[in-house]
Design a protein that fits this description.
- By secondary structure, this protein is an alpha/beta fold.
- It has 3 domains: about 200 residues, Phosphoenolpyruvate Carboxykinase, domain 1, CATH 3.40.449; about 270 residues, Alpha-Beta Complex (Phosphoenolpyruvate Carboxykinase, domain 3), CATH 3.90.228.20; about 80 residues, Phosphoenolpyruvate Carboxykinase, domain 2 (Beta Complex).
- It is built from 16 helices and 32 strands.
- The strands form 7 sheets. Strands 1, 2, 5, 6, 7, 8, 9, 10, 11 and 12 form a 10-stranded mixed sheet that branches. Strands 13, 14, 15, 16, 17, 18, 26, 27 and 30 form a 9-stranded mixed sheet that branches.
- Helix 11 crosses helix 16.
- It is globular.
- The protein binds sulfoacetic acid and manganese (II) ion.
- The site of manganese (II) ion has 3 residues, from loops.
């Protein structure tokens, strides 16, 4: 085994751990990433030579590459994801649990010799900007050059992280190998008490880019609870009004519910003078500032977005963002080596699909995998907020909880208070999508869009959310939103996309105390006249239906909430159970209509 001659650090904790992991995985060589541009070029060339990346048409899409995954490895695998706390109770009822020693032993057997003939890349990385009190340091060891090239877009890697680490032993230890990419030998294990992640058998984003879901959500949420802050699955958006006031909005949505689109929203023409800018599209770390407000920062440095459905109408910003220097995974290829996916204008002629097979328009199966992705650096986003790099984060005015629901949930509901807001987040649900493997189209409860990412017991997580209220002097308002309600014929009642601006405006006006709302048994809902519908070309009757609180639907919904809270066990905090009873009994008190 050859250990790289120039070790980039004198940090003994790091060197010893890398040696130990190299002895386990026996790579042919160990390579320390420095994060430089020269290194990016060199590793990209190596990836191209190895067939891992295919260069795209340099005139149409400069600096961009294409990658196809193993067809068995296209999404996060929640059933193979484990929280390995010392006790099963520590992981709670919503996580898979494996005892730490068993996990180290079982995965250790798979890791043993897994990097033979390969390179072990050492990726020191930072989540957050270097000067930020939010920043967290991780080191990922991986045998995948695809992972290295994606991590260098999604995080700040190399010397910048080593400098910040210095001689400390406080860094997350991540070990990753694609090994033989066998789903029967695929595990994503988190050891919060050891600040360690072991992931084996998958090269897919959320399973393999360890800085993302594994560190910034599962491990971070565990630390956040102990330290009094929140690590959340939220996009972050800056809204500047025509008067020049700025509001920052955080929004939790399950994967593939339009979160990236919302983070890059372009207001309709009637909203002259409004400017919307992106801060983040997936993860928010939130701490209470000295002024008692909640400050949020995006720890990532890039965007790992779902490609299908993205086009110049639904998300022009993302389309511009991916015009250059982007890695595409599992989309389709055009004859002139550009990319294509469902939702773009129909292609001319034959394509090559995500599995490398010829594909003609009208074919039964999609050309791009429904969970195909683009990985683009933050600076590519033409609507990026300057505050995206603010070390202290931005003060949040409103928190949104959303999900894809074709019935029941109104376009927008403001919570009566913080506890009710936490309840709305805790009971939020969504129809399932392609970002996770499993059935598509069934409703699953996804509290704060964090079901797959809470690194401990969900009841304790809700209690932590409730406790955060006491730390704030000016807490954000909490809203439930649903862009996806349908009529009886399955047509959307609300046009969504840029038109969501009308809802955001109402939300901002509520935060400023200048818009009215109607009290309903389940929360505060705008009347049709409370929304600014200037220039709206949809039917107002449909908007009224999208806003409606249907008591029968809500009786059924609340019954589902009860079952859900029962399922979570007795660590669900009493205020949330009481909140449930209050809502259910208020609805009953109205009597039959
Ligand atoms: O599937 S990933 O975790 O890689 C991305 C996402 O779901 O947001
Ligand atoms: Mn996500």
């Amino acid at each position: 085994m050859v250990i790289a001659k120039e070790r980039a650090t004198a940090n003994r904790h790091l060197l010893d751990w890398v040696d130990e992991m190299a002895r386990l995985c026996t790579p042919d060589q160990v390579y320390w990433c420095d994060g430089s541009e020269e290194e990016r070029r060199r590793l990209t060339d190596e990836a191209v030579a190895a067939g891992v990346l295919i260069p795209l048409n340099d005139e149409k899409r400069p600096g961009s590459y294409y990658s196809r995954s193993n067809p068995n490895d296209v999404a996060r695998t929640e059933e193979l994801t484990f929280i390995c706390t010392p006790t099963k109770e520590g992981a709670g009822r919503t996580n898979n649990w494996m005892a730490p020693d068993e996990a180290y032993r079982r995965l250790g057997e798979i890791f043993r010799g897994a990097m033979k003939g390969r390179t072990m890349y050492v990726i020191p990385y930072l989540m957050g900007v270097p000067e930020s009190p939010f920043a967290m340091i991780g080191v990922e060891l991986t045998d995948s050059v695809y992972v290295v090239l994606n991590m260098r877009i999604m995080a700040r890697i190399g010397n910048v992280a080593l400098e910040r680490l210095g001689s400390s032993d406080r860094f997350n230890r991540g070990l990753h190998s694609v090994a033989d990419c066998d789903p029967a030998r695929r595990f994503i294990c988190h050891f919060p008490q050891d600040d360690t992640i072991w992931s084996v058998g998958s090269g897919y984003g959320g399973n393999a880019l360890l800085g993302k879901k594994c560190l910034s959500l599962r491990i971070a949420s565990y630390h956040a609870r102990g330290q009094g802050w929140l690590a959340e699955h939220m996009m972050l958006l800056e809204a500047e009004t025509p008067q020049g006031e700025k509001h920052y909005i955080a929004g939790a949505f399950p994967s593939a519910s339009g979160k990236t689109n919302l983070a890059m929203i372009v207001p309709p023409p009637a909203f002259k003078g409004w400017t919307m800018r992106t801060i983040g599209d997936d993860i928010a770390w939130m701490r209470v500032g000295a002024d008692g407000r909640l400050y949020a920062a995006n720890p990532e440095a890039g965007f790992f977005g779902v490609a299908p459905g993205t086009n110049y109408h639904t998300n022009p910003t993302a389309m511009k963002m991916v015009e250059h220097d982007t890695i595409f995974t599992n989309v389709a290829l055009t004859p002139d080596m550009d990319i294509w996916w469902e939702g773009m204008d129909p292609p001319e002629g034959e394509l090559v699909d995500w599995r490398g097979r010829p594909w003609t328009p009208g074919a039964k199966e999609p050309a791009a995998h429904p969970n195909s992705r683009f990985t683009a650096p933050m600076e590519n986003n033409p609507a990026l907020s300057r505050e995206a790099q603010d070390p202290n984060g931005v003060p949040i005015s409103a928190i949104l909880f959303g999900g894809r629901r074709s019935t029941t949930i109104p376009l927008v509901v403001e919570s009566f208070n913080w506890t009710h807001g936490v309840y709305l987040g805790a009971t939020a649900g969504a129809e399932t999508t392609a970002a996770i493997t499993g059935a598509v189209g069934r409703i699953r409860r996804d509290p704060m869009a964090m079901l797959a990412f809470i690194g401990y017991d969900a009841g304790d997580y809700f209690a932590h959310w409730l406790a955060m209220f006491g730390r704030m002097k000016r807490p954000p308002k909490i809203f439930l939103v649903n862009w996806f309600r349908k009529d009886g014929d399955g047509r959307y009642l609300w046009p969504g996309y840029g038109e969501n601006m009308r809802v955001l405006q109402w939300i901002i006006d509520r935060c400023e105390g200048r818009a009215s709302a109607m009290e309903t048994p389940i929360g505060l809902v705008p009347r049709i006249g409370d929304l600014d519908l200037r220039g709206f070309d949809g039917k107002t009757a449909n908007v009224e239906r999208a806003l409606r609180v249907d008591e029968d639907e809500w009786r059924r919904e609340l019954e589902e909430h009860r079952k859900w809270l029962d399922q979570l066990g007795d660590r669900v905090p009493e205020p949330l159970r009481l909140q449930h009873r209050l809502l259910a009994s208020s609805l009953e008190a109205l009597g039959p209509r």
